[in-house]
């Protein structure tokens, strides 16, 4: 049995994951006068999708956009992140986004590095520009410092694996695994409120390189933990059926396509999209946002490849782009390009569409960032009914921190976590992985999952027969993985647990995809090839109750 | 496979191992450079390179991640 440290850490608010949303939640919760602990899988200074930077912070700044927020809300809806959000949440986000921009600027994350509010990139000609270009390279270090300044306790290398609920279904604590040493130790937490902020869900579908799982655009350490934990705790997930894909340089999977200032072109040198004839820092080629499958579509039709061509970009804008890629956090890619003599002024870079991942697909929250489970809040990428990437994480993280703190203030004592069987049950499962002398490596489980997801819940074709077969195979895999997974140390144990979390996420994707009997966006059903107007304003939720999956349709809010 | 530690420059401070989000490194002996235990799990985020005060770190990007490119304006020629 893995050693369980039976003395729980007591904290008013437990933040699960120290990314952008988690650190913002921690800062604001601490500002509301409660004790706060962040439990982080890696190190908050360099973890998650914002580890080394980011490009844009979507926001509404009245001094730039005017006092009427309406056109900005409309622009949000039409943006690449706006399709699957409750408008009430998006409006709240936009209303508060200005204050968060000012916070970051005051703390030392430069939000106007060129001396002015600079809305460049992700923009349409003639329309409001709502993506603020900022200098994100130091964001994690700054937010970590601000959290510590307020007395937040940060536990690095201590990923939370499970939420502890009581008999009434209220979240009262959590268990995690101290991975600082090769011998894992299970740690317990008592908390009055919990905030789930573990980032996106990578490694669910096959990545560009066959058999390789870490060549991903988004952080491969983010593996749908929040969604899986929340699902097991009985929380509703939402929008799980919709695949979400990024695009960027082919085979060097990396985010930041809107930071490139160039034109998407076919091999004959023709521009593939209708939006701009010359790319500038203010108006790059937004084709990749609007027609994100252009790279796949033109490859399949034989008209490809599609290239990013920056050769006609002005010298000033080229320099701005290269600066932007540094602030985006793409220095690994830039160093490689420099080493290899790849020069965007001379070379066109082929782009591709990456595999689906979970972002803006996950936990349903209300306007206060509360999930459907009492005591349990969520923010950032694992939220399913709102998405605005880094800005959304910052703003709803902030909201979640306040909500969690206010709830904690109204709870007079920590509840007894020993009444729950979760620690014993999950502890026994994780211990069984460590105790096996031989068995399936975590990679087997993760790759087996990826091939099922790619073939049976993929983006090319879905149908009732394929999805139901996929769900059956996934359950078979879960049974086999549960009984055969083997881990040698805390690192491989964590990877095994991540694989199990991803299997839980996959089950919700397949279940919801069966239920949505229409084709919409990238959810393409061969047996229902039309988009049903009756479902246009409806979201689908999925939750687990007594081992059974329950789904519900609801109106958008 | 990435990353690579230049042992001449490394002072065994362990920062790379502490901040790596993928837990690629392992400190086996606190007086020695970390070992690269799980190189295939590197995400190429470059945090170790950025945070090494001694410039001892570099990444070697593996062949499957080669960036596909052609000369501008003469793509198919």
Outline of the structure:
By secondary structure, chain A is α+β, with helices and mostly antiparallel strands. Chain A has helices at residues 20-31, 62-65, 70-78, 87-107, 139-149, 225-232, 287-290, 294-300, 315-328, 331-340, 389-409, 422-435, 442-456, 464-484, 490-515; strands spanning 3-16, 36-39, 56-58, 131-133, 153-155, 160-165, 171-178, 185-196, 237-238, 247-249, 263-265, 307-309, 347-353, 362-363, 376-378, 538-545, 548-555.
- In whole angstroms, the N-to-C terminal distance of chain A is 46 Å
Number of DSSP strands of chain A? 17
* Proportion of residues in helical segments of chain B: 10-25%
Mean pLDDT of chain A: 96
CATH-level-4 superfamily name of the domain at 422-537 in chain A: Fumarate reductase/succinate dehydrogenase flavoprotein-like, C-terminal domain
* H-E string of chain B: EHEEHEE
Largest sheet of chain B: 2 strands, antiparallel
Strand runs of chain B, count: 5
General description of the model:
The complex is a heterodimer of chains A (557) and B (77). Chain A is built from 15 helices and 17 strands. By secondary structure, chain A is an alpha+beta fold. In chain A, strands 1, 2, 5, 6, 7, 8 and 15 form a seven-stranded mixed sheet that branches. In chain A, strands 14-9-16-17 form a four-stranded antiparallel sheet, with helices on one face. In chain A, strands 10-13-12-11 form a four-stranded antiparallel sheet. The longest helix of chain A is centred in the C-terminal third of the chain and has 26 residues, at 490-515. Chain B is of the alpha+beta class. Chain B has a single domain (4-62), classed as Alpha-Beta Plaits. Chain B is built from two helices and five strands, in the order E-H-E-E-H-E-E. In chain B, strand 2 and strand 3 form a beta hairpin. The mean pLDDT of chain B is 93. Chain A binds chain B through residues 41-43, 45-48, 51-52, 156, 179, 208-209, 212, 214-216, 219-221, 249-253, 265, 267-269, 305, 307, 309-311, 329, 331-333, 335-337, 340, 342, 345-350, 491, 494, and chain B through 18-23, 37-38, 40-47, 49-51, 58-59, 61, 64-73, 75-76. Strand 13 of chain A pairs antiparallel with strand 5 of chain B, so a sheet runs across the interface.
């Amino acid at each position: 049995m893995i050693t369980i440290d039976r003395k729980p850490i007591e904290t008013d608010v437990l933040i699960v994951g120290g990314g952008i949303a988690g650190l913002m939640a921690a800062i604001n919760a601490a500002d509301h006068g409660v004790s706060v602990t962040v439990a982080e899988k890696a190190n908050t200074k360099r973890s998650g999708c914002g580890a080394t930077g980011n490009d844009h912070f979507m926001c509404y700044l009245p001094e730039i956009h005017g006092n009427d927020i309406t056109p900005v809300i409309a622009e949000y809806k039409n943006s690449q992140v706006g399709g699957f959000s409750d408008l009430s949440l998006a409006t709240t986000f936009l209303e508060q986004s200005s204050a968060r921009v000012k916070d970051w600027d005051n703390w030392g994350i430069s939000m106007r590095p060129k001396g002015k509010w600079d809305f460049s990139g992700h923009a349409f000609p003639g329309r409001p520009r709502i993506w603020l270009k900022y200098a994100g390279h130091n964001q994690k270090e700054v937010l970590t410092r601000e959290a510590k300044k307020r007395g937040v306790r940060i536990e690095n290398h201590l990923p939370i694996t499970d939420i502890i609920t009581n008999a009434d279904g209220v979240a009262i604590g959590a268990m995690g695994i101290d991975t600082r040493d090769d011998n894992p130790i299970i740690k317990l937490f008592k908390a009055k409120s919990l905030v789930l902020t573990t980032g996106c869900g990578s490694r669910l579908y096959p990545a560009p390189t066959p058999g390789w799982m870490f060549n991903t655009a988004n952080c491969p350490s983010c593996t749908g933990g929040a969604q899986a934990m929340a699902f097991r705790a009985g929380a509703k997930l939402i929008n799980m059926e919709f695949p979400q894909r990024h695009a960027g340089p082919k085979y060097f999977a990396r985010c930041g396509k809107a930071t490139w200032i160039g034109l998407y072109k076919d091999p004959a040198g023709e521009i593939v999209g209708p939006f701009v004839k010359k790319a500038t820092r203010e108006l790059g080629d937004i084709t990749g946002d609007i027609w994100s499958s252009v790279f796949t579509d033109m490859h399949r039709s034989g008209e490809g490849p599609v290239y990013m061509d920056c050769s006609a970009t002005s010298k000033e804008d080229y320099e701005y782009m290269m600066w932007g890629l540094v602030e985006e956090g793409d220095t690994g890619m830039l160093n490689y390009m420099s080493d290899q003599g790849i020069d965007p002024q001379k070379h066109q870079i082929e782009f591709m569409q990456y595999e689906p991942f979970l972002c803006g697909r996950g936990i349903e929250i209300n306007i206060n960032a509360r999930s459907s489970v009492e005591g349990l809040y969520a923010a950032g990428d694992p939220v399913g009914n709102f998405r605005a990437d880094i800005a959304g994480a910052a703003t709803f993280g902030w909201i979640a921190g306040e909500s969690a703190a206010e709830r904690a203030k109204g709870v007079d004592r920590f509840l007894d976590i020993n009444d729950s069987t979760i620690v014993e049950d999950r502890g026994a499962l994780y211990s069984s992985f460590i105790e096996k002398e031989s068995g399936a490596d975590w990679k087997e489980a993760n790759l087996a999952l990826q091939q099922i997801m790619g073939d049976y819940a993929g983006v090319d074709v879905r149908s009732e027969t394929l999805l139901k077969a996929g769900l059956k195979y996934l359950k078979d895999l879960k049974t086999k993985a549960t009984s055969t997974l083997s881990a040698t140390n805390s690192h491989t144990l964590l990877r095994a647990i991540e694989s199990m979390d991803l299997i839980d996420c996959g089950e919700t994707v397949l279940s919801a995809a069966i239920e949505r009997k229409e084709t919409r966006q990238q959810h393409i059903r061969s047996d229902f090839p039309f988009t049903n107007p009756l479902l246009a304003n409806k979201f689908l939720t999925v939750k687990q109750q007594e081992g059974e999956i329950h789904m519900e349709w609801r109106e958008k809010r | 496979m990435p990353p690579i530690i230049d042992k001449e420059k490394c002072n065994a401070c362990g920062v790379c191992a502490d901040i790596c989000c993928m837990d690629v490194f392992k400190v086996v002996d606190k007086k020695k450079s970390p070992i690269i235990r799980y190189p295939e799990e590197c995400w190429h985020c470059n945090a170790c390179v950025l945070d090494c005060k001694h410039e001892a770190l570099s990444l070697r990007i593996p062949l499957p991640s080669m960036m596909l490119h052609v000369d501008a304006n003469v793509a198919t020629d």
